[in-house]
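Note to self: the last two entries modelled the partners one at a time, which told us nothing about the interface. This time every component goes in together.
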Amino acid sequence: MDFYLPIAEVSVNAPLLIALGAAVGFISGLFGIGGGFLMTPVLVFLGIPPAVAVASEANHVAASSTSSVISYTRRKAVDFRMGGVLAAGGAVGSLLGVEVFRWLRLLGQADLVVSLSYLIFLGVIGALMLWESLGSILRRRRGDAPKPRKDRRPPWLYGLPFKVRFPRSRLYISVIPPILLGVFVGILSAIMGVGGGFVMVPAMIYLLGMPGKVVIGTSLFQICFVSAFTTYMHAVTNESVDMVLAVILILGGVVGAQIGSQLGAKLKAEQMRILLATLVLVVAVKMTFDLVIEPSELYSLTWVRR
Amino acid sequence: MKTLATALSLLLALLAAPALSQEKVVAGLSQNRISITAQFNGEQILIYGAVKRNAPEPDGAPLKIIVTLQGPSLPVTVRRKVNTGGIWINRDRVDVDSAPTYYAVSTSAPIDQILTHTEDLRRRITIPTAIRSVGAPATVLDSAAFTEALIRLRTNEGLYRLSPYAVDIVEDTLFRANFDLPANLVEGNYRVRILLYRDKALVDEATETVFVRRVGLERWLANTAVQQAEFYGILSLLIAAFAGWAAAAVFRFIRR
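The predicted structure of the combined assembly is written out below.
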């Protein structure tokens, strides 16, 4: 059953895309990441122009994350206050990031910077997280007591001004780190075209010291806003959101997200971290391969539409 | 003197292409309108016609026919990956002012048997002649490689085609050519050209137009996305929000 996509101007196989949308939605709900960095390359591979792929995928992420957030909210696993602060920072970061990206494109270095950013962030974060969660699991197996929560939080977190209470996260810390984190992730999102969850989740765990229970839900809350904002900006500025494509992806995505969030709430914190670390590392390794090994096709076309 | 002048002018008139010969092409299409619906999966067009003569067929060189179908042209950027410091990234770039989104050429015989290279350039018949104004920066020395890549990539996608022996000529009078259009079509006016050749000289030419348009929902979406972008953006978000809420509600219902 094939459908013609009016904005992409190509024809795609609907059941395949529904299944892919569901798979990525599942991963999204499970780990608290957007999943765009998984889906967008697949869409481009299927023949959809990159600009349309990025914009329509943002729409897909907005829907999947909404589905997950509702699910996590019912379990009181979303810190709205923290999410709000992060999203606010994210909005600012997004606007900054768009400027940075435009500047990079003028320099002709956008491709290089984006590829290297993916590699560095995915690789470093994946490796660190794998190290940490393996250590945690080994410690538990050996019967040692887990590190006390106080030790896991960086001390500087408590020294900064403008302290605010975040009851759901059981934190009383300055707003400055969350705002800065939000801005940073926002900049990355705009440059790399992703939701930033794979940076946000580890940062929440290790930098802010949030309890595992609220990390996924809060990350998805922030992603929901960022991706909705991105979708709207793409629709208005580039007219590149293909609604037929988005709806097909969303049909699978929201269902996959529900299943993923049910499962995600049941995972033990260390299990989730190790699985996410593995996923991130696998993607990082694949990207390294793609960058380092000579591609079978050196040339690519970008049509200037309208 | 006068006879020489008359003879010369007659000769010139005869040599001026297209030949004054009494052969004209009359053409028809199986359909001149293609509607791109939501489930559009490609379309076949039959281009046919006849050669009208008011004198017996000239002896000598056989009749050869070229039929082309050309879609709208757009600017395109061709990029090439270069190994920079160990990694392959897009470095070189060539901007093409205009290249067809679709171009199919069907002929009754191999094209080099039908026309000369000069004629090809003049009439812009083969695919490379339809690609215009390839602008390369000073850093790119082999812009021809980029044009070749453009043709190769599009041919692999089935959007550029050169099909010799795809035009059937019956008794030097009737001709027909089938075109198999793929699903990945761009909306616009597609130009049909039928060219009659004898002995590498053009005898007659005819053109037709096929109108390819999105219809129904596809048309509404494409237009709204451009003309009412804010509304379209908000609609996308509403769909996302509704779908997210609906899935959550359904699962909650199931789990109860």
